[in-house]
What does this fold into?
Amino acid sequence: MAFDGTWKVDRSENYENFMIQMGINIVKRKLATHDNLKITIEQKGDRFHIKESSNFRTLELDFTLGGTFDYSLADGTELSGSWTLEGDTMKGVFFRKDNNKQLTTTRCIQADELVQCYSYEGVEAKRIFKRS
It folds into this structure.
């Protein structure tokens, strides 16, 4: 599948402002901008295995498209939601457990890069990954 492989963060757009909107403190924001995040994606039909590795943590996650699951961001923010596949785009709709506000994430392949977009309370950001 197109998403399969290991992807290393290359650059970000508006990520600092997104983290501010999320309520992430300055120390964690500064660490996150230098996290050297790697995402490994394995897809088998509608099932995904994701491994996220950074300077600060490693997390492995298994989910089925459309199935609700719990997830914790690197800063400790707890979420619940699900991923779907809309054409060539993965779309994640998650709700924060502390305030029930929605965080939307999409992943798509553009020019051999994995583009991960975030939207929270009107603030949008991107993280662009290259195959490693």
